[in-house]
């Protein structure tokens, strides 16, 4: 039932009403009738949205091994810190003197992110990973143009990359050239050598890659691109796998974006808000997006256009998704120095353990010769050929067993794939229970394939008609 | 080990299952020499208790202010029911609803949000949100250019649009060679004059941006501007404060045929100021433009038993399918803020939203009345306005604002940096959260500062508001 269907003319959440006031505006500017919002009591609203929440899987309620999304525990302490009144009530345009507490947190976060990425500077402004990518590529373009090199019109992107990489290159006015992967999941160095040239602006590389393996040729890759006059972009989507162990700056990369809603455990929120800070090497410092936080004699303030004349500009009206940055700051302070490295250690341990257990249980790893980083891929191609049960069917059946499905059909390279990322915050018991469910579903697929093909059965709805959703568009209730 | 559940026995058993001697061995594909052991720049771990102590100290230092700043971020009362629901783990720790059957809560909320925001703006379709109002404006510009059949790459951007929004639009669209042509405003009346718009038919622009209310709080002649844009063969892009739409004509009804795209920031609908984010960019449009929209869209459909359900739809526009040809690179948007705004709109209903908008309008008029009663303080644009006003002050604006700060009042923002012709003026806002006593207090303190009965002090490090 929709909130609109609970509406009764004349009902309202009375405690929320401010005193009535007269409006002194010309009639031509006013709307003829009030907007058709629902008329419901406060209790009805609370009950309606609480009930809706119960129709969701979430990290707090289920194991959520959604590959490439790093669905780990979002500490409640991070939320509590960010929800303190002094932080919530501060106006973004208030003087820096009235925001020293908040700005101190931002400055510390900026410095921590510099340290863990090994970059010369960090800007917190981008509001999600995709906007961080945009900022990164825009800086690369600004750098080439500042040197008078306008011939570089092409961005190289490996075929395993997230869709945001080529989409970002387009938004920055570049064309995209895809680089193939080798059979063992690395970037094909020969193909890369053949592809680079005076037209190359940059390579965008996700490492560990979306197949869940560390690019063993990483140092060679950045040398090839740099030798051709291009810059190197490190997509930090999978930073969780290397946190506190190795740093993109030490690998010679020019730019990195981080997804704080992944690696720094800020909430995914049903699709955001995220935060996508960018880190850069020395030569790109002047181009960082604004604002930047600086400290002078113990006082913190923002640097804006006037002080950053070569900046690529402003990504948001104010300073980005500040409340999310506060949660990342809190998380970083809770983990501390030692905790950073433990993230990578235990995320990798869990991924390799789960991969080993699933392999032993008869599942086929897409890259069996590789170490899993924080995630890995299994392919159900043979199962599909034998039983007709697809990776999607398998994923839907997992919901009945109380597990969120892994990422399906990504990366596009591997047929019938499940990309599985357990994260460091899951216990061995949970991983074992997941293996047991996977095995049970495999047996179901082999013995009662129609059962699996019809899944799920235990959710608020059965499988949905996506074709109808797209053909007979219903995007707003007309009742 | 914070948030890591492994016991020593677990680790030993897991390594045995993997066949690795230790955790270190799991990293043997990383080229040697890259290990960054140490991270001296990261502080040592804090317990939650120590973290909260530090966070409280800092939050307290940021104080408790009587705030009269608006300028794109508005202080409204946030009903207590909203955030405990928003931060329920089932919303807070879920992700993009790729597995629709296990995400019906989030999906239905987005569908309700899309419905609410289309009703408020009077347009037919909405997406599931964009980052903030400024980046939503940039996306609207890109969308208008994509939709333009004549392939024109210029958009008209009036000077009455928030300066920060103009800066963001410039940063986000210039990369694609799109030109933003600034339109001057009438410095007497504080809005765009239709008769002063360029009459040159060779403008080659794909769209006109129409802010309502504009940055000064002043109402624009939206009907005439929309009709003018359409007469030139341009799209009309409305940039609105959704709170104002409780009172003002919906963009879908502007002029003869309505604005084509509407964007803005839904922060006023239940989202805290929080130093600038996260806020909530929204976008609605006419049905015919839906395939040019950026971002997630939720549709209503049925399951295989015919039961109603909700799913992401029109995904062929998006980066994970269309890659380099996607309408935008956006994926994560502002999901949790959508939950907050949806609950806010449902709680307030038509009556509540109208009351909040009217009270904000009336409070601002009452503040202007009190302040302009002081010698030398005048209202610059004496025009119909929503809940902001530009006031000219007799004295150095920055010093006066600083003196107000010292008395616990955020008195507004100085306009000189963005509008040199208004370097003697400030922009003020009084929402429904202000009482008559608050307005009196502001007027009293300003009077003292202006009359120098109580000489302005330099801004203290930790100002406290203490009436």
Task: Produce a short descriptive summary.
The complex is a heterodimer of chains A (about 475) and B (about 475). With about 475 residues, chain A is an alpha/beta fold. Chain A has helices spanning about 40-55, 75-80, 85-90, 100-115, 130-145, 165-170, 190-195, 220-225, 260-265, 320-360, 380-385, 390-400, 430-445, 450-455, 465-470; strands at about 120-125, 155-160, 175-180, 200-205, 230-235, 255-260, 280, 290-295, 300-305, 365, 375-380, 405-410, 415-420.
How much of the polypeptide of chain B forms β-strand, as a percent range?
A: 5-15%
Question: Quick one: biggest sheet of chain B?
Answer: 7 strands, mixed
Largest sheet of chain A, in brief, is: 7 strands, mixed
Strand tally of chain B: 15
Shape estimate of chain A: globular
| Coarse structural class of chain B | alpha/beta
> What is the number of strand segments of chain A?
13
Mean pLDDT of chain B: 95
Helix content of chain B: 25-40%
Distance between the termini of chain A: 12 Å
- Order of H and E elements of chain B: HHEHHHEHEHEEHEEEEEHHEEHEEEH
Oligomeric category: heterodimer
Give the number of domains of chain B: 2
Give the strand order of the largest sheet of chain B, numbering strands 1, 2, ... along the chain: 2-8-7-6-5-3-4
Rg of chain B, rounded, reads 26 Å
